[in-house]
């Protein structure tokens, strides 16, 4: 391979193919790659993606040894092949800086990094943020996730588990939520279908390439999801599912949603891995209780008992956790005087820590950091965003809640 200068005539074309190339040669994501793309970690700045792709393709010895080793069997890939598959299927590759890139993912992984869980065995030490995603479907990912809930559970649910999953997904869909899940057998399928059946949107996060429907029997379901929402994948076309890819997939399920609900899970369940991610991202995590004699609910019961998940016995419990500051009104609900979309958990934490009116000795950045435990970069970024949206205003060194928002 001769490098990005051979991939296309225009700068935009070379940049796009450089992203496609990285998505092919990098498995999931890597911290050393993110540092090369965004030195200092500020993903709001343009990434020099063509340079990074060129260095990997030409085996630049100045790159980290582990990155060179990780790409040793893939660096000769020609991204034009993946780009052509994407063109034929109508898929798109999004990355930070794209209008469709969901800001919630950035906030989720900032919180995860701040929690110091990079080597936590409960999330398998795979806490690196994604750098690009393949998306297919009529729904815009950034809009779909504004009011979204991850709903996960066992592949072998009981009748009770199915009934609760269908009821909760239907009621949340009617309330305006997008349902995020993994497209798997069992609870995932029930939740996807219930949301679609009531006219809501759904997002399926795949553990395979974007053109690989797994399980294959869910092909019709994935087509429905793409018509009313979208499918999302970190992996390039043709990549088969694998156990480690389900684990890395789970972090995206948790990261895209406001919070996670486990509908039914035994003690050893992939659904609990998603709950671990949600917990590590400091997001609301809930579980449905079941019979104490049922092995299929022992994971849910343990997380509730250990205070790692709030108990969800109705959708009101879920919405109470996910809507601490409200959102744009659903049909028949009174409209709040501020905001048309839900705040993320980190946004809510920062907003709550801001001063009220002339409240003395409160509202400085250090005060907000102390109250939330979030990193300084995330606090400043969130404050600036809340200011643009009219939630807070700045007075000197203090941040104050805007009138009508408290």
Automatic annotation (TrEMBL):
Taxonomy, superkingdom: Bacteria
InterPro entries attached to this UniProt entry: DprA, DrpA_SLOG, WH_DNA-bd_sf
Residues covered by the Smf/DprA SLOG domain: 123-322
SUPFAM superfamilies: MCP/YpsA-like, Winged helix' DNA-binding domain
Pfam families from the UniProt entry: DNA_processg_A
GO BP of this protein: DNA-mediated transformation
Family stated for the protein in its record: Belongs to the DprA/Smf family.
Stated name of the protein: DNA-protecting protein DprA
């Amino acid at each position: 391979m001769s490098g990005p200068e051979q991939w296309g005539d225009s700068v935009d074309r070379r940049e796009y193919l450089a992203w496609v190339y990285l998505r092919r040669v990098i498995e999931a994501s890597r911290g050393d790659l993110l540092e090369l793309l965004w030195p200092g970690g500020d993903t709001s700045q343009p990434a020099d993606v063509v340079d990074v792709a060129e260095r990997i393709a030409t085996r630049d010895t100045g790159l980290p040894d582990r990155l060179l080793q990780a790409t040793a069997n893939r660096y000769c890939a020609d991204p034009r092949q993946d780009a052509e598959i994407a063109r034929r299927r109508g898929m798109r590759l999004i990355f930070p800086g794209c209008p469709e890139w969901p800001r919630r993912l950035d906030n989720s992984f900032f919180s995860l990094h701040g929690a110091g869980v990079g080597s936590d065995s409960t999330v398998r030490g795979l806490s690196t943020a994604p750098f690009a995603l393949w998306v297919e479907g009529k729904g815009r990912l950034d809009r779909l996730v504004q009011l979204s809930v991850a709903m996960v559970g066992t592949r072998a649910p009981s009748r009770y588990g199915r009934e609760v999953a269908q009821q909760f997904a239907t009621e949340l869909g009617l309330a305006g939520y997008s349902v995020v899940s993994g497209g798997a057998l069992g609870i995932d399928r029930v939740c996807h279908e219930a949301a679609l059946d009531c006219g809501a949107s759904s997002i399926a996060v795949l553990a395979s390439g974007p053109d690989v429907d797994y399980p294959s029997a869910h092909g019709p379901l994935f087509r429905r999801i793409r018509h009313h929402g979208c499918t999302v994948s970190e992996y390039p076309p043709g990549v088969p599912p694998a156990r480690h890819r389900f684990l890395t997939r789970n972090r995206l399920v948790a990261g895209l949603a406001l919070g996670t609900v486990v509908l039914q899970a035994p003690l050893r369940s992939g659904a609990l891995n998603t709950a671990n991610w949600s917990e590590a991202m400091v997001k609301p995590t809930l579980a449905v209780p079941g019979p104490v004699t049922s092995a299929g609910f022992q994971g849910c019961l343990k997380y509730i008992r250990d205070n790692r998940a709030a108990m969800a016995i109705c959708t009101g419990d879920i919405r109470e956790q996910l809507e601490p500051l409200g959102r744009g009104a659903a049909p028949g609900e009174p409209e709040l005087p501020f905001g048309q979309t839900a705040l993320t958990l980190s946004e809510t934490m920062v907003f709550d820590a801001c001063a009220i009116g002339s409240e003395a000795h409160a509202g400085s950045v250090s005060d907000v950091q102390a109250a939330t435990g979030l990193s300084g970069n995330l606090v400043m970024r969130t404050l600036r965003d809340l200011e643009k949206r009219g939630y807070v205003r700045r007075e000197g060194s203090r941040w104050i809640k805007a009138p009508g928002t408290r």
